[in-house]
Amino acid sequence: MLKTAALLLLAALLAGCGAMLPRSKETTASPWQSYQEVQQTFDKIVPGQTTFIELKELQLDPQASPNIAILNYSDVLRRFVPNASVSLADLDVGVKDCISAKTVCTGYEVNQKATNKKRDGNFLADFLGFHRETQTTGWAFNGLLLVKDGVVIYKLTGGQPVILQHEETRNPLGPAMGLAQKLFGTF
């Protein structure tokens, strides 16, 4: 009797304890803390003027800054001419110049991301698989630079300044649903 009462009390306490729900954080190592910061850095880059030395000062040196990919001629070509329906005439002047220069031109791809996932709701319902809510917030930035003879000749930026996603899963059978799927397959 006392053991049952203690278990019921524990279950009641855990049922409302959202602090017991999992949380996760995913951040790409970078000198920028927000989408706006990295966009402001890229706004300082002027194609035809900004040098590789200035890129280093802006912390866009792939040898010193984390998570900056170096793209070779072949990578740039695949990115901008994915199939025969795209011709060189369709491309920006800077891109054409880079592709024509072949190995003299290098691309730098910057992908920065920071997201937080937080589960909300009732711990017991989540734990048993009846009801789960997940909030995802953050930002994602991607930028591309083409550098020929030490000077930026092309820049492109994009991404998501604000990420806000809500996922809700309801499973009326709770843990029985997972067991039934294992026994009888997906239904």
Show the helix and strand layout.
Elements: H1 2-15, E1 23-27, H2 35-43, H3 52-57, E2 68-71, H4 73-80, H5 93-101, E3 105-120, H6 123-128, E4 131-148, E5 151-170, H7 175-184
Antiparallel strand pairs: 1-3, 2-3, 3-4, 4-5
Helix pairs in contact: 4-5
Model description:
With about 190 residues, this protein is α+β, with helices and mostly antiparallel strands. It is built from seven helices and five strands, in the order αβααβααβαββα. The longest helix has 14 residues, at about 1-15. It is elongated and about 80 Å long.
Number of helices: 7
What structural category characterises the helix and strand content? alpha+beta
CA(first)-CA(last) distance: 40 Å
Overall 3D shape:
elongated
The run of helices and strands is HEHHEHHEHEEH
List segments where confidence is low: pLDDT < 50 over at least 5 consecutive residues: none
Instruction: Tell me the helix content.
Output: 25-40%
Mean pLDDT: 82
The value of Rg in angstroms is 25 Å
What is the count of β-strands?
5
Amount of beta strand: 25-35%
Please give the largest β-sheet. Answer: 5 strands, antiparallel
